Amino acid sequence: MAANQLSPGVVVQERDLTTITTLSTANVGVLAAPFELGPVEEIVTISNERGLVERFGKPNDSNYEYWFTAAQYLAYGGQLKTIRLASSSLKNAVNTGTAPLIKNLQDYETNFEAANNTWKWASRTAGSKGNSIGIFVTDAGADQIAVIPAPGSGNEYEFVEDAAVSASSGAAGKVFKYSIVFTVDAVVGDFTPGVATTVNIGGSQQAVTVISWDPGNKKLEVSLPSGSVTGIFADNQVITQGTNTAAINVTIERRLYIALDKGKIAFAAADSVADTNSTAVAITSVRQEYTEREYLPGVKWINVAPRPETSLYANNAGGHRDELHVVVVDVDGGITGTAGSVLERFVNVSKASDAKTSVGETNYYPEVIKQRSAYIYWGEHETGVFNATATASDGNWGQTAASRQFNLLRSTAGTTDYPAGRVTLGSDNNATYYYRLESGADYAVSGGTYSVSNTDVSTAYQLIADPESQTVDYLLTGPSGVDDATAIAKVTALTNIVEERRDCIAFVSPRRANVVGVSNTTTVTNNIVDFFDQLPSSSYVVFDSGYKYIYDKYNDVYRYVPCNGDIAGLCLQTTEEAEPWFSPAGFQRGNVRNAIKLAYSPNKTQRDTLYSKRVNPIVSFPGQGVVLFGDKTGLGFASAFDRINVRRLFLTIERVISGAAKAQLFEQNDESQRALFLNIVEPYLRDVQGRRGVTDFLVKCDADNNPPEAVDRGEFYAEIFVKPTRTINFITLTFVATRTGVAFTEVAS
Predict the structure, then answer these.
(1) Nearest Cα residue to 65 out of 566, 621, 574, 440
(2) Which regions of 404-496 does DSSP assign to beta strands (E)?
(3) Phi and psi at residue 680, in whole multiples of 5°?
(4) In this predicted structure, what is the pLDDT of residue 76?
(5) How confident is the model at residue 11 (pLDDT cuts 50, 70, 90)?
(6) Do 518 and 434 fall within a single domain?
(7) Do 386 and 265 sit in the same domain of this protein?
(8) Model pTM?
(9) Which of 41, 73, 114, 394 fits 389 for a cystine, CB–CB 3.0-4.6 Å?
(10) Which residues in 612-623 are b (16+ Cβ under 10 Å) and which e?
(11) Cα–Cα distance between 250 and 255 in angstroms, integer?
């Protein structure tokens, strides 16, 4: 009974027989290559040359053959699944310790995120480019700078780091740093931060340490050792550091940097504090320390963002001073081309592991860096810190925010060498850390090119070996290899992949040394034949004869690059402009782009030799351009599948019809279902026939090839017979001259 029919009537139902698509190919290529940048052993889909530059960097003298294989393929359209190769020599830059290879985000999460690393920061991408990265970090640090007067008599004041100070006004905190800043003149030489300096104090030469030196403003900041300084600094005293000298001139400013207690009651002018000798000192002025703090010489943190303080999340949990600012800088200009360029900024991120933003997203700084940074990974929390609490561990980073007063940045280590020999205001021992990444390493170079093993190549291409998870139409080889043995092993491995997938084609060019720089064309022909003769027979591989000469705009040089990216590009172009079962060769569809000239343009005799050996010649025809002049596959015997168009026809219809067949899984195995399948497949093949892909076809799916015993086993059989359209490879033109009185019918027979 018809559904919902209790009395006579008509029910309208629909059955979709259009679920099969006529889309024949996705036009997706794949190339594994030793690029300068980018994740390692991770598939990244690129759709144009700009994307290639952004994700994997520009070409260089050691990888340009690979790079331009990718770029030339993309010039024809389509998409490229790009994989950066691994190598034992490839390393990520780190701020200290042993440089690792962090392949990609998954590798970081699995092997480094929760590990005990020897480094606190690492470059996001492996290679020497990471050595240009500097990371500047700041937090709440010192709250105030209290300026105090010169002692009336006796000795200089002694304020010791971590000592508590308080005032009758209720202000309280810890001494973050105590220093004295001189304005000097009569300067000879250049003072070096972190190095001991001698100065006349109260009539005797005594040792102090230079904290910072600003030659532009002639400001010299020094720290005093506790309990060992006698006398008072005075004008005109000479300061000596080796052969460097200067004289104190007029201005002597004694600065007491204070980190306020959690209550944040600030000190004010006229407050009185006591040094470690219980000497009372009346504060003459107070200013905010953060407004003077720099991350680059002359570039202040206040211009990046307001002072890091306590986030709303931490405050609500009873926490204190959890916020950080992180600035990533291209120190040498190795990444952007401009030294000192800011690459990224992460403002008001949190030290608290459970911190959230106002919209509920994580604000924990290692997690934010992981999710948002394009340049760095986090490795470990900073431990050279100011203990804001009585027990240092209570304020360690990476704990929850509840009732936590987080420790603050303060250290003399690693903060004095950007730029070389200079210290920015507020950097040394005062709440700004500078981490310079180093030890990043590129691929080893052999014979002027990056050296990668066939094992690394095979590992990369295995990422696309599964046809169910990775759609691929064209597999590009780039340069074949440094020698015949290496090249044969590489191409054989790739051939095995496409033979196992059986839904894509690998494109292979000859080995560079067999073609480029060889003046005798007969020798080149023999080299090519000898090389390809050693490769396995397969209809899923296409061989070409070419290296083309192009202009490299990124390095302003001309280079020879392999043509396999172009031949794959011609196939995808043919799909877009005609049909995948049309030949990509010839003057209609086989014009190779961006070719100034060829390293080897075979003549007719040489083309005959190549073509008989499964190699498709690429030929430069005067006035007609550079043309692919053959459409053979790498099959070693005569067959319909020794033609590219036939192989691509079957790849197309197999992909489409197998997709339709998947829809039959778990349906009823009966005559009705078989008829439904026929009603899907036959219209599609008629469409292919109308589009000149086949001359005839037959689909058999009935009780004859689906007997009861097969049905009982859950099996479903369909046999699809097709007569593929063949391409014209040989044309014979016969011109006949006849006498005037001869009828054409007499001679045309």
Answers:
(1) 566
(2) 408-409, 432-436, 445-446, 449-450, 474-476
(3) -90, -45
(4) 96
(5) low
(6) no
(7) no
(8) 0.86
(9) 394
(10) ebbbbbbbbeee
(11) 16
Q: What is the rounded distance in angstroms from the CA atom of residue 228 to the CA atom of residue 201?
A: 11
pLDDT digits (tens, 9 = 90+) for 701-717: 999 899 999 888 988 89
Looking at residue 282, what is its pLDDT? 94
pLDDT of residue 194: 77
Owning domain of residue 410: 109-140+301-440
pLDDT at 17 over 60: no
Is residue 15 a part of any domain in this protein? no
Q: Tokens 């079962």 identify what position?
A: 581
Which tokens in the block code for residue 93? 């830059």
When pLDDT is averaged across residues 18-22 and rounded to a whole number, the result is 53
Query: In the predicted model, what is the mean pLDDT of the chain?
Result: 90
Q: Where are the beta strands (DSSP E) in 379-515?
A: 385-386, 408-409, 432-436, 445-446, 449-450, 474-476, 505-508
- Give the pLDDT confidence score for residue 413 in this predicted structure: 47
Instruction: Give, in degrees to the nearest 5, the angle at Cα 112 between 110 and 114.
Output: 85
Last residue of a domain, one of 440, 470, 491: 440
Cα 662 to Cα 19, 28, 548, 666, 716: the distances in Å are: 11, 22, 43, 9, 11
Question: Same domain, yes or no, for 308 and 264?
Answer: no
In total, how many domains does the chain have? 4
The helices-and-strands tally (H runs, E runs) of the chain is 15, 37
CA angle, corner 252, sides to 291 and 213, nearest 5? 60
Contact status, residue 649 vs residue 577, Cβ threshold 8 Å: no
* Of 654, 640, 476, the residue nearest 572 (C-alpha): 476
Asked whether residue 364 is domain-assigned, the answer is: yes
- Give CA separation, 10 vs 13, 15, 17, in Å: 10, 16, 22
